[in-house]
Each structure stands twice: as C-alpha cells, then as structure tokens.
Amino acid sequence: MIQASDPLLPPGVAERILQHTSEGVLLSDYRHRIYWVNEAFTRITGYPLEELRGQPMTIFRSGHHDSAFYEAIYATLMHQGYWEGEMWRRRRDGQISPLFVNVTRIEGKTPEDTYFVDFVTDLADYKRHERRVEFLVGHDALTELPNRVLLQDRLESALGRAHRHGRKLAILFADLDNLKEINDSYGHAVGDAVLREAASRLRKATREEDTVARMSGDEFVVLLENLDNPADAERVCETIHQAFTRPLKHEGNQLRMAISIGISHYPGDGADTDTLLAHADASMYRAKRAGGDGWDRGAPETNNQQ
What we know:
Layout: H1 13-20, E1 24-29, E2 34-37, H2 39-45, H3 49-52, H4 67-80, E3 82-90, E4 96-106, E5 115-122, H5 124-137, H6 148-165, E6 168-176, H7 179-186, H8 188-204, E7 211-216, E8 219-227, H9 230-243, E9 248-250, E10 253-255, E11 259-266, H10 273-289, E12 294-295
Parallel strand pairs: 11-12
Antiparallel strand pairs: 1-2, 1-5, 3-4, 4-5, 6-8, 6-11, 7-8, 9-10
C-alpha cells in the first residue's frame, strides 16, 4: 500500500517516463552542454545519446536563425524561466527540420546546479499537411491543376496586365466528350484516371507560362497570355486536339480520348472574366454540336469545327 510518507515517485520512474514519452527530451547543463536525451529525441534528430553527451547546444543550429534569435531565447529563460516556439534545427544527416520546442530552466542551489530541459515536437509532418491544405485551397485534388478559385484570380490578373500593356489573350474552354461513357462502362476509378491523363496532356500541349485549370467535372480552361494574334490560340487548339487522338491504355483497356474546345479572345469577345468564359463556353458547345472531338474558332458567324 502506498503511504503518504513514501517518495513522490519510486527511484528511476521519472527517467523511465521521460525515456518513453513521445516527445523528444533533452537535458543540458548551465554551460549549455548536452547532458542527456531520450529515445524520441534520437528518432527526431538522428543523434544517439553517446554522440551528444558533452556537445554544445550549437550543434543543432540550422543557419535559419541569427544570434539575436538565440539571445532573445536566453533572455526570456533567465527572466521568465521558460520559452516555447518554433525553430529550425539541424539533424544528424544534415537536413533542417521544423520543431516546436518548449524550454524550461530548472534552478539548483548554485548556478552550476542549473539545468535546461527541452521538450521537442517534430513539425515536419504537420508542415507537410499544412502545405497540402494550403495547396488544395487553390487546386483540384484529383488533377492538382488550379481550380476555379485560383483560375478566377489568374484571369483577373492577366486581364489587368493585358489592359495595361495593350496585349491580347485567349481563353480555351475544353470538355471531355466521352467521360460519362467511360464512367458508366468501367467505373469512376477509371474515369478519374482519364481526368488525370487529360490534365497531363493539356499541360504538355501548352506553354509553361499558360494556366491549365479544372473548372468542374470534365471541364477544363486554358488561359493563354501574350498572344500576337487570334491565330495563336487556334494553333494551341490544334496541338491539344492532336494530343487527344492517342487512346489511353489503362488496365488492359484502350480508352478513346476525345475533347471539344471553344475559344474566346480579349479584347474582341469581352473585357471581364465572366463574359470571356461565357463566350468560350458557348464556343465549346458549338464544337460539340458540330460532332465533338474538335474545336471551334470562337466566332459565331464562322462556327467551323477543325
């Protein structure tokens, strides 16, 4: 039975707790020399205890922070007794990792009996997740193309540049002709593979500076800036059309890839994003009504599919 007069913790229990906690733990002395680390700290940094014991804390410095950063931490520790925040530290393999660190100063009877305890949490996975979430705000999860939100922002920026510099641009509105048939025949997993392939072919058929976005479902939009004349957009349409003539080989199936494309031009077809998208959408439907698997020049009076 536990008695009130018993020690708060049996001998060795505190060290076992620190050894098996999921957080990294480091103990340094008053000279900021490393005295002890737990197994979690070794997993996070790659450094075993035998390599660290007696080493200065500067062994972890990443180059991301200047001396003023560390001086401010030390001043806070001496004034308040603790500090916590994010910092970058160098791992044993040379990689730089983001960490959340909580440092506590433990005073003894003499200055030489003072220790500092670091509790360390690896933020690398969290940072990767955070970057992924930020990416998906403006991108489609399936194809990783810009989504409608990011496209709208880029269209508005492009129109502003075109207006200021007297340049032409074009919008291509593209729709896969047979995605519903593929979904019905092979399932949506195969349909997703077709969408990813369509995104890849659109990127390869356009310039690096062009924006290829997925609007929704089987609809894509391509923004072409800095065009010399409307015929430049037509040449891109022909390149895209040719890129989709090759069937997709997927799990033993030969899947036909067909796409219909419409065009709108700035400034001829409009001066704002909604008008230009509407003109390109209407042009795309003219291409579909003409049989699909091609493109429309964008002018209602011509309405010729190529």
